[in-house]
Amino acid sequence: MPTSSDHPDRLTPLVAFGTNPGRLLANTYIPDGFQPDGPLVVVLHGSTQSAEGYDGGSGWSELADEYGIALLFPEQRIANNFKGAFNWFRRGDSGRGEGEPLSIRHMINDVVTEHAIDPARVFITGLSSGGAMTSVMLATYPEVFAGGAIIAGLPYRTANTVMQAIYRMKGYSGPSDRQLTALVRAASGNTGPWPTISVWHGARDRTVHMSNADSIVRQWQQIHQVDGPPDSVEQHEGFTRQTWCDADGRVLIDEILVEGMDHGTPIGAAGARGLGREGAYMLEVGISSTRVIADAWGLTK
C-alpha cells in the first residue's frame, strides 16, 4: 500500500473543524494559485489506508496541480475502527447531524469558507469503506454535493451491524431496492436537486461483490426518475460504461465495470495523462478513475 513516505508532505492537517463528533482526522491539499470560486473534491480512503497513501495511489493532488482543484481528505483513526475503515454501517455514523457524517460536513464547511470554494462545485469520492461512506454523505447531505463517485462501495444503509456489513459485502440479501430508495429519501428530507451518481466496480472484486454496484444504481434510479434499462451502454478497452440520463441528455447515473479487476481503485499511471502509483488496492488497469471522474465532473476543462 502507498504510504506517506512514498508521497511526502503533500497534505496539510486541518486542525479544527466544528465539534467533530466522529473524532476523525482531516487533511487538505490546496494547489498553488488556487482561484476563488474553484471546486472542491472530498476524497475518502479505504480500510487499512491513510489519506496520504490514498492520495499517492490515486493521484488526486497531481490532478489538482494541473487544474486548480481544492482537495479535502477525511481520515479515520484506528481508535475508531481497528482496520482504519469509516464506520458506514453504524447507526450513529450513518445519519445526518451525527457521528462521522457530521464531522465530514464540518470539514467541508471549514474548507469552503476558508478558501472561497464555489458551493455549487463540491464533489465526493471514496473507495471501499470510503465508497460506502460516500454513499452515506450523498444520502444525508445531498444539498452539499454536485456529484459523487462510489468506488467498490455499498448502498446507503444496506447494513446496520458488523455482521450485516460482512454479508452485504459478499452480496448476500439486504433491503429491497424500494426500501433502499426510501432510506435515501428519509435521510435528509431533501426537496432540491440531487447529486449525480457514478459507480465504479471491478468485475472480479472478491471483497465487495459487484452486485453492490447494481444495488447502488437501483437505489438512486427512482430518486433521479430514471427507472429501467440504461440509455446507453459503451464498450471501452478494459471497461463497460452504462448511463442513465435526463431528458436533455445529462448523465445522472453511470456505472463503470472494469474487466478483470479485483477490489480497489482503478489507476493508469503510464503516459502523459497517467496519474498515481500502483499498490495495495490501487490497481494498475490502464484506466485512471481519478482523471475520468474529474473529466465527467467538468473539473478538467
TrEMBL record:
Its keywords, alphabetically, are: Hydrolase, Signal
Q: Name one Pfam family in it.
A: Esterase_PHB
- Among its keywords, does the record have Ubl conjugation? no
- The reply on keyword Signal is yes
- InterPro entries in the cross-refs: AB_hydrolase_fold (IPR029058), Esterase_phb (IPR010126), Plant_Biomass_Hydrol_Est (IPR050955)
Residues passing through the membrane, by range:
none
Q: Which residues form a coiled coil?
A: none
Q: Name one GO cellular component term.
A: extracellular region
Q: This protein is called what?
A: PHB depolymerase family esterase
Biological source species:
Paracoccus liaowanqingii
